[in-house]
Amino acid sequence: MAIVRIRYIHSFVDKSGRVRFYFRYRHKRWPLPGQPGSIEFAHRYDELKASVVLPKGSSSHITFGPGTLGWVIEKWIGSDDFKKRKSSTQVLYRRFLDSIRERYGRGMLVDLRERHVRSMRAELTKYTSSADRCVTLLSLLWVFAKENLAMELGPNPTTDIQKLHTQSFEHEPWPASLITEFDAKAKPRPNMQLALALLLYTGQRVGDVAAMRWSQYDGRGILVRQEKTEELVWIPCHRRLKTALDKAERHSDFILTTHFGSRYGSGSLSNVISLVAAAIGGKGYTAHGLRKNAGIALAEAGCTDKQIMAVLGHKTYAQSHAYTRRAEQKRLAEQAIRKLERAEKVANPRTKRDLQSG
To answer: CATH topology for 176-331?
Structure first.
């Protein structure tokens, strides 16, 4: 799983199960609003970093000259190319860009070479996935400078740098016993049974479930604009989900709320679900794993690829197959063994009797 450490940020889980974040510097703490990835979180973080940590004369107060790496970073951040990206992506990129600008902003981009990129990657990052993101950003800056700033640059110095992060984390579908126990024991946590039903019966990503509003529910189904794909999907409610929604109390515009009546962020909802699952013996199982359960259940019910894609919001058969291959394997294996049994019975009518007597 990719892990990103944000400098000066610490977190804890309060009594309600909500993950709270704070900015810590020299033994002092400042609470942060929202969740990492949200605009309010990023703005407050930038304010505290500028006012508490960075002294006057630091890179945040420097005007970078044309052609420098810091100047290109500032141009890119202000461009449509950067602003059209998702807000969560912008916040994530800004963390790395601030570090790059602070350390190397005065250097001329035209002088950047492959050995410099490798050195920067080693100095700026600790985790392999973060190291790869550093290289990705330098590559994007290089391309942006050539295409939009009319800078005469040579070959991209990041082209021959291979990724360090080669292992991918796969979210496993939950065992039926864990789902049953979660539903029975998650009652102290607000809305956890409803969160479970939404994840299982809509098959949507945890961020989309956390963002669901009551206005999206029309009594028959839920209309969702998927954040990742921007795909607009309408999911008819399974009878169990409809019952849960109709019985649920409405504390805010959002379907899922904390003890304080505020909405869950994507990260906080994921964390609470993982914590509850771990407490009942399901350590390692995630909210996204329930999306796998939804796809597998649809496949085992005999749904076609197009029907599964309509629910999960996938645009290609390959994406759908990644979620349903286990159900397909189970079905094909079952068919294969039944064929083997029929073939053996035709070849040797005594096979069945011999097996029973043996």
So the answer is: hpI Integrase; Chain A (1.10.443)
Residue 130 one-letter amino acid? S
- Whether the pLDDT of residue 91 is over 60: the answer is yes
Strand partners, 24: 29
CB 91 within 8 A of CB 41: yes
255 within 8 A of 198, measured Cβ to Cβ: yes
What is the reported pLDDT for 1?
Answer: 39
- Give CA separation, 318 vs 305, 309, 331, in Å: 10, 10, 18
Residues 6+ apart with CB under 8 A from 130: 2, 3, 4, 5, 96, 124
Rounded to an integer, what distance in angstroms lies between the CA atom of residue 110 and that of residue 112?
Answer: 6
**DSSP single-letter state for residue 111:** G
Question: How do residues 26-66 score in pLDDT, each as one tens digit?
Answer: 778 888 888 776 777 877 887 787 666 655 444 445 678 88
Helix (H) / strand (E) element for 186: namely: none
* Share of residues in the chain with pLDDT > 90 (%): 32
Question: Which of these ranges, 15-29, 99-113, 213-227, has the smallest mean pLDDT?
Answer: 15-29
In this structure, which topology does domain 62-169 adopt according to CATH? DNA polymerase; domain 1 (1.10.150)
**Where are the chain's structural domains?**
1-53, 62-169, 176-331
| Six-digit token string for 282 | 């399901």
For residue 203, the tally of other CB atoms under 10 A from its CB is 25
Torsion angles phi and psi, residue 39, rounded to 5: -65, -45
Which residues have CB under 8 Å from 235's CB, separation 6+?
201, 202, 203, 204, 221, 222, 224, 311
pTM of the entire predicted model:
0.57
Q: Which residues pair with 217 in a beta bridge?
A: 222
pLDDT of res. 190: 65
